[in-house]
Structure formats: C-alpha cells, structure tokens
C-alpha cells in the first residue's frame, strides 16, 4: 500500500520536471522585454496576442481569395482576343514607336536637330494593363502593331483596334471590382481589430523597454480598448497623420500632446507609432521636427530601412518620395540632420476604422497605378511609376505578377505570429488550432516566468493540457537558433530517386553527389554535414533534421526512440532495404525461422547494430520465394509479369522450352525449389577471400562468410589469403555461423519452398510423434546408397525407409518395395499414411499442407528439441543468437511505457528525445532518474557538448592516419570509444552497472599503434576496467588515461609498450595492473612510481625486460605478483612485508638470492610460489619442487 501511494507522487514530480525542461525551450526564446512586464500588463498582453493571431488567420483566409493581377487579367484578355482570330496573349507583343532628337548630323539639315524614331516591344498583357487614352484608340504611329515572338507583324488586330479593345475591356476597373468584393466588409473588420491590438501590444513592449512612461501607456491602452482620447498628464492629445516631402504616409500615427498657451498652442511632445519598425514601433520626442531630424531622418539613411518604409508610401508617390529622400539624406555626415518637410494632418475618428479604410484605399490605389481603369487613366502618374520601377529593377508585368494586394504587408509585424516563429519551427505549416494552443502555452510559460522572478527553474509545476507543445522536439537550426518542432516530415518528403540511382550497403541510393533514403515507405533526400560528421535531411525553413543509422540500411530521425517502438512489424521494416519489402506474413515467417521477437529487433535499433547475416539471408530467400509465387500466379492467370528477370530464369528450367501460360506455371511450380536456389546463388557470388573460407565450411553462405571476414582481424585475414588456412578465431566464428545456418535452413524448408536436405528429414521424422495421429509409422533415414540408417524412429505401425538423394526423397518398405517416384519430403511421407490417417491429420484440409503446418508449429514451440536433433549446441557468441534463451537477455530494452504510463500519453518529449539520442539504451527508469535531478537540463547540455567534442576529436585523430594501414583500426577504436561513452554496452546495461562503475572497455587483436590523447572535458566515469590486448601500441598518452577517473583495472598486454602507462591520478587507485608481454624497461623514476601503487591487488609485469627490481612494501593489499621472464637480478624489495601476498611467480629471471627468512614465511608455507629458471642453489630448487608437488 505504501509503495502504491508513493508512486503517483513520484510520477507527478517527474512529470513536472519534464514539463519544466520542455518549457525551458520556450522560456529561452521569449523576448527579454516580456519578462519585465507587470502582472497587469502581461494580462493585457495575454488578451491581445490571441486576438492578433485570430485576426491574422482571418486575414490569411480572406485575402487568399484575391487573385494576383496577372492571373486575374490574363484570361480576360485572352477571351477578348479570341474574337479576332488565333491570338495567344502569352506569345504576342505590342510594338510601340517613339520619336527622339537624334545626335546624328545630316548633310542636308547641317546643324539643325534631326528627329529620329525607334520602337520597343512589350508583352501584350503589359500593354493592356497600361491601357490606352481615347486619342490612342483613333490614331497611333503607323509602325505600332502586334508582333509575335519572332517579331513578325500580326494583321488580325491593328494597334488602334487593340486600344479600343483594351478600353472596352477595362481590366483595371474589373480588378477594382474584384478587390471590392473581397475587401468589404469582412477584411475591413479584421483590419480594424488588427490595428487596434497591434498598437496595444507594441505599446506594452515599448513600456517594458522604457520608451513609454506609465501614463503614456495608460493613454494608449484607453485608446485601443475604449476608443477614448483622454488627457495625458492634464494635456489634450491630437491624433495626426504624418506627411513627409508632401506625401501622406499610411498607417503611421502621430500623437501630438498639446501644450496649451494663451495666444497659441505648441507641442509638448509627440508619440510616433510606426507599425513593425525594426528599431521599435514607438518613439517619443520633444516635437515633430525633432522626430523627423533625429529619428526618421537617421533611419531613412539605411537601405534596409528604406525597403521597410516602402510599405507606408503609396505606389503613386513612391518615385517622388524616395527621390526626395535620396536627394536630402544621401551623403550626409552622420552627425548632421536634415528636415524632411514634415507635416501632420488630422485623422478622422474613430481611429482604427479610419486606418482600416486607408489601408483598403491604398491597396486599391496601388492596383490602379499598375492597371489603371479608363476613368482614372493618368499618363503622368504612370510615367512616374515607370521611373520608380526602373530604379528598382522591375517591369510592370513583373510587379503585376507579384501583386497580391497587401497580404505581405498586412501580415507582417503581427507580434503573436513573430513570437510563434521565434519559438516553434515551421509554424506556418501547422493548423490554426495547433498555433492557438502553442500561443496559449507560450503565454502560460511567460506568466510563470513573471511569477518566479524571470527564472526558468519552476516554470511548469502544475499539470497542463497543451499536448501540442508537449509533443514537440528541439530543432537546432542552421543559423544556430534552437526552436521546438512538431516533427512533421511532410515537407521533407520527395519523389522516389531516379532509376539511375544505385543502392549501396548502407541503404542509400546514390546518383552523383545526391543521396536518398527510404523510411516508413517515404523517400527523403539527404546530405552530409561536415561540421557534425553526420547525415541529415535536406533543410526546410532553415532546419535539417539529423539522421541516425546502423550502417546497414536502418535509418531514423535523431528524435525517434526505438526503445519505445512497440509494433514488431514496424521494428522489422525499419531495418530498411529488403526488410521493408516483406508483407506481414513474410515478416512473421522470417521471425519464426530465427526465433526472434520484438526485443531482438528493438535491440538492433537501439544499439545501432546491423541484423545478423543469417537473418538477412533468410529475408532474401523469403522475398525470393514470394517473387516465385507471384510469378506462378501471373502465369496461371495469363497476365503480364512485372518480373522479367525471374521469368528468364524460369525459361531455363528443364521442360520449360516452348511453354507459356498455365503450362509454364506448372513447370515453374514443379521446379520452384531448384529455381529459388539457382536465383539465390546467382545473387550471391563469392569473393576470392570468401571462397577460401567456404572451401573449409561448405554450409557457410556468402553473407555469413562476409560477416566472419568482416569481424576477423587483419592478421587473420592476411594468413587466410596467403596460406589458405583458416585461423582458429575465424574457424570458431565460421562454425557458429554454420550451426545457425543449419537451424535456419530447417525452419526455412518448413515455412517456404526451399531445397530440402537431410537435416530437415532428421527433424521431421523425430517431430512426427508430436503431431496428433502422425506418430504411427516407424522410420529409417538413409543418405543415398548407405547401408546403415542415419536416423531410426520407432513407431507402433509399419516401418518405412526414407531414402534421400540430391534433395529428393523416396519411400521404401521393409520388403524393399519402392512406393512412388522421388519427390519432395512431405508428399513422400504421405504415402506412409492410409486415407483414414490422412483425414484425421488433415481435419478437412489437404493432408500434405496440414502435416507441414503442424510440423512447423511443433518445431517453433520446441526449438531446443530441433537444436538437439541436429546435434548442435545452443549457438552463442553473438549479440543476438537465432533463438531466444529461456531466461531472457541482459540489456535488451523493452518497449517504453511502464514508467511513463503514470505520466499520461502526452508526456513532454524534448528532454527525453535529447537524452535518448545521447544514450539510446537508457531505460525509462534511467530517464526518470535524470528528470528527477534538479539540474537535468544543464547536465544534459554539458554532456551534449562533451559528446560533440569527443566525436570531432576522434574523427580528426582517425583521419590523421588516412594514408596508413592503421586507418581501419583507428576507425574501429573510434567507434568503440564513442559507443562506450554512450553506455552502448549490451552485456552490462542497467542502472546497477552504471552506478557501480562496472563497465569494461576492451580492444583485442588490432593493428592500432597509437591511442588518442582525449580532450580534458571528455570523461568515462562509468568505466572501471580498461583492457587492450595484442595491439601495436607503443605509448599510452596520459591524456587518454586521465579520461577514466574511476579506473580500477588496467590491462595492456602483448603490445609494444616501453614505459609504464601510469599517470599520477591513477597510481593509488589501481587494483589490477597487467602489463605482461610488452617491452617495458624500468628506470629509477618508473620504479618509484610503481612502488607507490598502494591499492594493487594483482600485478603482472611478466615477459617485459624490466632489468630493475622495485619495492612492493607499500602494496599492503597485494595478493598476486607475476614477474616471470623480466630479467630481474634480485627479488622485489619488501617482498616479506606484503601481508596479503599469496601468489608469486619470479620464474625465468637472474635471481641468485632469496630474502632472509623466505622459506619460513607465510607466503612460502601457504601460498603459491614459482622460482624456476633462476640462479638459485640446489636446495632452493628442491624446496620449490616440494612446494608445488
């Protein structure tokens, strides 16, 4: 009962910490000014921002109905042209002639000016948008005409006729009507709300930043919420519109605080509101001139600010305005100021409705400048507009193509949207309800920051309901920013790679420099990121999700957590390559053949391991059997096969010549096993080295041979290639593979139509007794013409001989009567059962399939029996053997959910995803321990930095051996070190192992000659045992060993060390030191260091040319001392003072004298002593023999 009561409390505490970590990402993206608001001000902000977001969503929806100018007018013009013949508006131009004063001097006119003429062609739609005057529809220059793309004149419509058509069509007026239909009244209402709440939010920001005073903020709040123009510090305020250089600016509001005088009024100060200003929307200055000179005039000197400010200038005024800006402000010293001919005009009230009307009027007016209605045709305005377009590098048609009125300008500067974009990745792809929930959560976090004094430690201590945010994961953008991302992969998906793309062993499809992978049935293009040394998807909106893979086709996103994947078939398919091509039944067959379950598959994903060769081979054979079955069905149905390569193999079968359709299907069915084996062997050609190995192990298939060769040392491979002899370690690995293959082949033959052999017959005959009704006959199994049976199975009925030859079977009675022709096993067995027995076993089904299925079920249930029948031991020695042991397997992660079940389905993912990416094998409980610590976020950040440093350093270290034979060894050691740092040690998983420091880092038989000097910030505190054996290492850097602060066992044996690898930080910590089989020679300094190893329990320096004795007096815990073949001239000093010493081996040295009293010591009387091979006298030698008798 006590346990039950405490568990929910712990779960709630952990949930709160997980939520706090999730909210940390939001808190760190919130602007600093928001944290300085008062509670009342933040309440106003929390009310205004959702309103702004709703306005934006409404405006997006409404303005989406506005068609851009080109798309709206082109069909109308094309329809009008259709009445005049075959005229294509997209392929026609309007040629317009003009006159000018020529600089050429003519001999007739002498120095008098000569009038020249020329023409230019403009797209027909551009000419129609510019429209024509009434005079142009009657008379135009004679050369004006319509021409095609080649410049040829078109006679269907004259220039005046085209002018009349355009004036009658009046595209500009039609577009004005289109704008009216959308903008009124829905957009007007949305714009009013947007202007109101934008001003309010910007005022709150200005107050937090110290721009507005408290009184000024309250005045703006009253204006925005109540439309009241109250007094500001006792003074009246007038709402004015700003005009500069004679141009009235749109949407800018000037609040003129009036200082009333006896004779005339003056400005006490002005508050200027410029929506979306990157320098801050609000400015407070002493008067309008001060603002114009020292604020607006300074900002307009920047090109970026001019581009921003363009949104407040009507298109018809833009040329005049920006020309004046350039003339007045360009090349002005930074300290100087200029007036801007500034003026103000009264705004009509209510203010926000008027601002909305002005915005709509401005949009319509801008459209009229580009496409003027006939009634508003103004050639002077058009000329100014054309000059502005030329200055900006545009054409009229180009501007029309991009003119979707106001969507950009009206949607920019919405603070609610900006906050979402700053915090969440690709928020534009979200649904409205998701954005609303995210904004609500963001505001809740901001409110929490205010409550705890702008810290992040206790942001989310209460339960929340914003599952949208809890499901997000952190995203590190290319520019270094970090946002939360909803893991939507839709924008990253692409079409399947071109047919020319070539797949490789890692599961990538390559074409030139491009790469594609498939995950969960979707294709993604990816690229290599040099800085992080990892693959990632092509970026979308600045984010390129990093990828993780096992080097053999299993790809996943960094945040995906295989430890939580619960669907066995998903786990199987995510192994990639051919694994993803199998259907559900084939997946179940493959797993049953090898006795695998979801835990085995999950472990491969978690530890980033490739599936074993035996399973990969079975998947290929199951897939091939499926292809054969599909082809046979197509042939029977008379359809066209989609597998011509397999059909070509069918035509090579005996009796296939000249047949097609159902007849060919019968041939393929009869030879399906031989067909499978032929295609299988063709798909798996031998390598030269593999052929040498398979000559000694005939049952070894190509994939298994490759795995043995891949795991072998370079020395063993060299021996195999040079002599043809298989080294012992390689032979043991090959025997293990053969055992697995024999078991797999039996189960494959039971499940699919593969070649049948004696192993299958041996298993089947012995399992018949377990099939109800099938245990009656007795059996004797013979191989070919052998005189003695291989297997004898007693039965209650008649005994039959089963003869095997070349994969086919024949039945023979005791009287040597042959029953039937040679055939496959199960059909041959059927002849031994009468009709009654077959009916009883078949249970209404055909006997042969029923018997085969029954035997398959028995074999799956009694896997150990099958192993015993094949006279094999349980295959061991690999990470995941084909059978699952009855007592489970240490370190296999289960599907997540037991710990998190109490926390709800929508648990925060950010910290958990980062932690699992760093430590994929962590259990739910280990993650819970992390979250329970108060500094989880900071610890994780430090570890991520350490991991990055370690990867980069080891990558650089490995690359430094790029041109040497040591490169493969360095890469292997790099991988092992990184996996060890990430606790990816399957044999030692578990919190107890981590807490007790029982991790062991080992490397055996390698050509590695140099160990890396690890950075100071990298550590392996969980490693207590370091074992390096049979390597070429000559020196161990102190910087390498310092990374193992909790090292207790150091074993570097059969290497090439010349000095003791003993940094001072390890000297008094080591309990086991084994440096046997090196080339260490002791000098006085090293002897002193060795003598200071006070905690040693085991010391082995055998087979080193030490040549100098050292003291063991301080080694009070020493239990075993091995110093054989070390060229010692005398015994170690203090030998008689080591109270715990039990084993001593000083054989093969130059010792001529033993310490006084040695033969009476406890070591001599009760311990184990070896002194042979020294220069001691005969008496001593005789005593030694007695001691070891």
TrEMBL record:
The chain crosses the membrane at residues 394-417. Keywords: Leucine-rich repeat, Membrane, Repeat, Transmembrane, Transmembrane helix. Residues 63-316 form the Dermonecrotic toxin N-terminal domain. It comes from Pseudomonas putida ND6. This is Leucine-rich repeat-containing protein. Pfam families: LRR_1 (PF00560), ToxA_N (PF20178). InterPro entries: Leu-rich_rpt (IPR001611), LRR_dom_sf (IPR032675), SLRP (IPR050333), ToxA_N (IPR046673). The keyword Transmembrane helix applies. PANTHER family: AGAP008170-PA (PTHR45712), INSULIN-LIKE GROWTH FACTOR-BINDING PROTEIN COMPLEX ACID LABILE SUBUNIT (PTHR45712:SF22).
């Amino acid at each position: 009962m006590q346990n039950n009561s405490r568990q929910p409390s712990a779960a709630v505490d952990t949930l709160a910490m997980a939520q706090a970590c999730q909210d940390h990402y939001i808190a760190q993206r919130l602007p600093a000014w928001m944290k300085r608001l008062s509670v009342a001000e933040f309440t106003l902000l929390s009310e205004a921002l959702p309103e702004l977001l709703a306005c934006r969503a409404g405006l997006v929806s409404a303005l989406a109905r506005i068609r851009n100018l080109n798309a709206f007018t082109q069909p109308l013009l094309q329809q009008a042209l259709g009445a005049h013949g075959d005229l294509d508006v997209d392929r026609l131009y309007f040629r317009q002639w003009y006159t000018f004063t020529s600089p050429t001097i003519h001999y007739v006119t002498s120095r008098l000016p000569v009038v020249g003429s020329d023409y230019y062609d403009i797209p027909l739609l551009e000419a129609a948008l510019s429209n024509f005057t009434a005079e142009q529809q009657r008379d135009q220059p004679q050369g004006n005409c319509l021409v095609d793309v080649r410049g040829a004149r078109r006679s269907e419509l004259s220039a005046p006729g085209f002018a009349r058509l355009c004036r009658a069509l009046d595209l500009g007026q039609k577009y004005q009507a289109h704008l009216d239909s959308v903008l009124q009244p829905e957009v007007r209402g949305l714009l009013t709300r947007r202007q109101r709440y934008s001003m309010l939010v910007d005022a709150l920001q200005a107050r937090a930043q110290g721009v507005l005073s408290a009184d000024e903020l309250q005045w703006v709040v009253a204006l925005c919420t109540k439309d009241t123009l109250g007094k500001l510090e006792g003074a009246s305020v007038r709402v004015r519109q700003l005009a500069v250089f004679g141009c009235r600016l749109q949407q800018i509001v000037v609040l003129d605080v009036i200082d009333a005088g006896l004779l005339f009024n003056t400005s006490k100060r002005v508050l200027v509101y410029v929506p979306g200003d990157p320098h801050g929307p609000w400015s407070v200055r002493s008067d309008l001139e001060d603002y114009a000179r020292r604020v607006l005039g300074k900002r307009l000197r920047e090109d970026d600010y001019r581009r921003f400010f363009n949104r407040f200038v009507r298109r018809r005024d833009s040329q005049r305005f920006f020309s004046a800006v350039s003339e007045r402000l360009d090349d002005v010293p930074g300290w100087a100021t200029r007036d801007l001919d500034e003026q103000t005009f009264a705004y009509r009230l209510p203010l926000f409705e008027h601002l909305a009307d002005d915005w709509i009027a401005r949009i319509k007016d801008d459209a009229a400048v580009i496409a003027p209605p006939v009634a508003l045709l103004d050639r002077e305005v058009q000329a100014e507009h054309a000059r502005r377009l030329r200055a900006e590098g545009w054409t009229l048609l180009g501007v029309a193509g991009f003119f979707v009125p106001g969507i950009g300008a009206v949607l920019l500067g919405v603070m609610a949207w900006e906050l979402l974009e700053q915090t969440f990745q690709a928020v534009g792809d979200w649904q409205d309800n998701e954005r609303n929930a995210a904004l609500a959560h963001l505001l809740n976090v901001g409110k929490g920051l205010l409550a705890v004094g702008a810290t992040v430690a206790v942001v989310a201590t209460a339960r929340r309901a914003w599952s949208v945010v809890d499901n997000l994961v952190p995203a590190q953008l290319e520019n270094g920013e970090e946002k939360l991302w909803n893991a939507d992969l839709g924008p990253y998906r692409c079409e399947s790679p071109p047919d020319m793309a070539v797949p490789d062993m890692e599961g990538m499809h390559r074409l030139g420099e491009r790469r594609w992978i498939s995950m969960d049935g979707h294709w993604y293009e990816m690229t290599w990121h040099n800085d992080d040394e990892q693959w990632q998807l092509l970026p979308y909106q600045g984010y390129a999700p990093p990828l993780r893979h096992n080097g053999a086709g299993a790809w996943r996103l960094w945040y995906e957590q295989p430890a939580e994947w619960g669907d066995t078939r998903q786990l199987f398919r995510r192994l990639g390559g051919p694994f993803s091509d199998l259907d559900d039944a084939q997946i179940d067959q493959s797993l049953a053949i090898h006795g695998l379950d979801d835990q085995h598959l999950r472990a491969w994903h978690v530890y980033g391991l490739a599936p074993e060769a035996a399973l990969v081979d079975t998947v290929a054979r199951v897939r091939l059997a499926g292809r054969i079955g599909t082809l046979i069905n197509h042939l029977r149905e008379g359809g066209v096969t989609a597998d011509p390569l397999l059909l070509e193999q069918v035509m090579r079968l005996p009796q296939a010549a000249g047949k097609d359709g159902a007849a060919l299907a019968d041939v393929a069915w009869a030879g399906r096993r031989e067909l499978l084996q032929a295609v299988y062997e063709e798909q798996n050609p031998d390598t030269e080295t593999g052929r040498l190995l398979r000559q000694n192990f005939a049952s070894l298939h190509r994939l298994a041979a490759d795995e043995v060769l891949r795991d072998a040392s370079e020395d063993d491979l060299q021996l195999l290639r040079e002599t043809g002899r298989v080294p012992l370690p390689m032979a043991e690995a090959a025997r293990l593979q053969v055992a697995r293959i024999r078991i797999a082949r039996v189960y494959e033959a039971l499940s699919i139509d593969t070649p049948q052999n004696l192993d299958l017959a041996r298993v089947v005959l012995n399992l018949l007794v377990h099939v109800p009704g099938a245990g009656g006959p007795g059996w004797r199994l013979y191989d070919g013409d052998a005189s003695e049976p291989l297997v004898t199975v007693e039965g209650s009925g008649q005994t039959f001989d089963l003869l095997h030859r070349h994969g086919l079977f024949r039945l023979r009675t005791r009287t040597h009567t042959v029953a039937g022709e040679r055939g496959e096993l199960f059909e041959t067995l059927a002849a031994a059962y009468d009709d009654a027995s077959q009916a009883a076993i078949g249970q209404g089904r055909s006997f042969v399939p029923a018997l085969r299925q029954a035997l398959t079920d028995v074999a799956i249930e009694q896997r150990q029996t099958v192993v015993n029948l094949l006279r094999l031991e349980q295959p061991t020695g690999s990470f995941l053997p084909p059978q699952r042991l009855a007592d489970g397997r240490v370190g296999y992660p289960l599907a997540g959910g037991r710990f998190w079940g109490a926390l709800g389905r929508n648990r925060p993912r950010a910290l958990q995803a980062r932690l699992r990416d760093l430590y994929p094998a962590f259990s739910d409980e280990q993650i819970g321990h992390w979250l329970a610590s108060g500094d989880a976020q900071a610890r994780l950040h430090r570890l991520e930095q350490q991991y990055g440093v370690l990867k980069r350093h080891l990558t650089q270290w490995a690359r430094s051996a790029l041109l040497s034979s040591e490169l493969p060894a360095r890469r292997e050691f790099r991988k092992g070190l990184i996996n060890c740092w990430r606790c990816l040690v399957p044999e030692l998983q578990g919190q107890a192992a981590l807490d007790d420091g029982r991790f062991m880092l080992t490397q055996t038989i390698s050509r590695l000659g140099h160990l890396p000097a690890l950075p100071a910030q990298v550590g392996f505190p969980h490693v207590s045992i370091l074992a390096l054996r049979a390597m070429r290492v000559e020196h161990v850097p102190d910087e390498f060993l310092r990374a193992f602060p909790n090292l207790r066992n150091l074993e570097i044996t059969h290497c090439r060390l010349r000095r003791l690898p003993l940094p001072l930080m390890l000297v008094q910590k080591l309990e086991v030191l084994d440096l046997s089989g090196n080339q260490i020679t002791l000098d006085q300094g090293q002897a002193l260091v060795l003598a200071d190893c006070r905690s040693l329990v085991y010391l082995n320096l055998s087979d080193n040319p030490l040549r100098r004795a050292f003291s063991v007096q301080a080694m009070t815990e020493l239990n075993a001392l091995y110093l054989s073949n070390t060229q010692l001239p005398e015994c170690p000093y203090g030998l008689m003072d080591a109270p715990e010493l039990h084993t001593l081996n000083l054989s093969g040295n130059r010792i001529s004298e033993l310490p006084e009293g040695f033969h009476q010591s406890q070591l001599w009387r009760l311990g184990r002593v070896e002194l042979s091979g020294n220069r001691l006298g005969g008496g001593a030698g005789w005593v030694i023999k007695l001691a070891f008798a």
